[in-house]
Amino acid sequence: MISLKGFIKRFLSDPVAIGAGVVLLILVLMAVLAPFLAPQNPYDLMQLDIMNSEMPPSWKPGGDDRFLLGTDAQGRGVLSTIMYGTGISLIIGIGAVIVQGILGVTLGLIAGYRGGWVDAFLMRLADIQMSLSTLMIAIIVLAIFSATFDANTYADYAIFMLILIIGVAEWPKFARTVRSSVLGERNKEYVDAARVIGLPPRKIMWKHILPNTLTPVLVISTIQVAEAIMTEAALSFLGLGMPVDRPSLGSLIRSGFEFIFSGSWWITFYPALVLVALILALNLLGDWLRDVFNPKLRRGDD
């Protein structure tokens, strides 16, 4: 395991990692502090004025200093919607990965430690799950959900449904990663010693083996957050994600797409730019973490 000092040293010596970390930190702070920093609350109807709709960025002719990045068709400031929308996208991405992690780590740990028919059954189940497209599953479930309930009910439970669907659909990636790590750990001396002193399998798995399998889980979690955010954005663009009145980055892109050819390009362009920056930063950090924790790529940083 790389030391904290070695970890920080590698981070500070990698310009790409620093750049990705700074971008991610800025976006996270922007989302967390949105209620305090945003010029406007896009959820507060009292702050909206339809007469301000489709105003260009403030430096363009016809722009207003109150709306730095312009406004959308409902009169909401694009900057404010981006700040709030980034928070929703991050909540969905992180929430989905938590669901994936709970399911995947638990099943992967059981499969790797138990072996035999339990391992075979769980891995075949994972194979079946991975053969199905996450987007296809989400489209079917969300289409049924939106057709069954009214728009207000759908809006109330949209975040929960997206987190649950994306999380359940992607658990095999965690399960396979943890299983492969457990297979390499279960026959080591510290596990044999725990068996000899009479510890039950549950304690051996969770208290002894699991801590030694968390490094690859950390790496895959970063990348999976990016994938979950991309999936949510795709669903929102198709009209099956977050509703327009509770925008994520994906629903913001969708809400402005129909106005691109009328000249109001900023409604879609800036949310899309932030989405690309967020996904890129997460993927670059995930790749960097993978390289750092790969023993074959370390050079005396410990």
Give the SSE layout.
Layout lengths: L3 H9 L2 H18 L1 H4 L40 H37 L1 H16 L2 H15 L2 H19 L1 H15 L3 H8 L4 H9 L4 H24 L11 H9 L8 H28 L9
Helix pairs in contact: 2-4, 2-13, 4-5, 4-7, 4-8, 4-11, 4-12, 4-13, 5-8, 6-7, 8-11, 9-10, 11-12, 11-13, 12-13
Main location: membrane
Protein name: ABC transporter permease
Keywords: Cell membrane, Membrane, Transmembrane, Transmembrane helix, Transport
In short:
The chain has helices at about 5-10, 15-30, 35, 80-115, 115-130, 135-150, 150-170, 170-185, 190-195, 200-210, 215-235, 250-255, 265-295. The chain is an all-alpha fold and about 300 residues long.
Identify the notable features of this structure and list them briefly.
0% strand; mainly alpha; disordered C terminus; single chain; 302 residues; MetI-like fold
Describe it.
By secondary structure, this protein is mostly helical. It has a domain at 90-293: MetI-like (MetI-like fold), CATH 1.10.3720. It contains 13 helices and no strands. It has helices spanning 4-12, 15-32, 34-37, 78-114, 116-131, 134-148, 151-169, 171-185, 189-196, 201-209, 214-237, 249-257, 266-293.
Task: From the 3D structure, determine the CATH topology of the domain at 90-293.
Answer: MetI-like fold
Mean pLDDT equals 84
Euclidean distance between termini CA atoms: 8 Å
Order of helices and strands: HHHHHHHHHHHHH
**How many helix segments?**
13
Strand content: under 5%
**What is the CATH level 1 assignment of the domain at 90-293?**
Mainly Alpha
Output the radius of gyration: 23 Å
User: How would a textbook summarize the main sheet?
Assistant: none
- What gross morphology would you assign? elongated
Uncertain segments: 297-302
Name the CATH superfamily assignment of the domain at 90-293. Answer: MetI-like
Q: Helix fraction? A: 55-70%
